[in-house]
Amino acid sequence: MGKKSVDALFDALYALTDLRVIFRKTAPKHELSAGQKKEAKESLDTAKKAIDTIEKELKL
């Protein structure tokens, strides 16, 4: 595992933190506005891409 994987891990963690912030702002019902849904999707896409990078680096 190299620097690329470590960087990808932090990218995923930051993206998931952004998603967590959205969930905290919308608690307790978690009813997201259109803008929040867009931000959530972007965060999830970023996390998925980062995880894919890690999997490729680890040859999983």
Can you tell me about this structure?
The protein has one domain (3-58). The chain is built from two helices and no strands. The chain has helices at residues 3-25, 34-58. The longest helix is centred in the last third of the chain and has 25 residues, at 34-58. The mean pLDDT is 96.
Summarize the structure.
The chain is an all-alpha fold and 60 residues long.
Reconstruct the topology from this structure.
Elements: H1 3-25, H2 34-58
Helix pairs in contact: 1-2
Write out key terms for the chains shown.
mainly alpha, 60 residues
* DSSP strand count: 0
Global geometry: elongated
Low-confidence stretches: none
Q: Supply the helix-strand structural class.
A: mainly alpha
Element-level helix/strand string: HH
Distance between the termini: 12 Å
Helix segment count? 2
Classify the helix fraction into a percent range.
over 70%
The tally of domains stands at: 1
The biggest sheet, with number of strands, parallel, antiparallel or mixed sense and barrel status, is: none
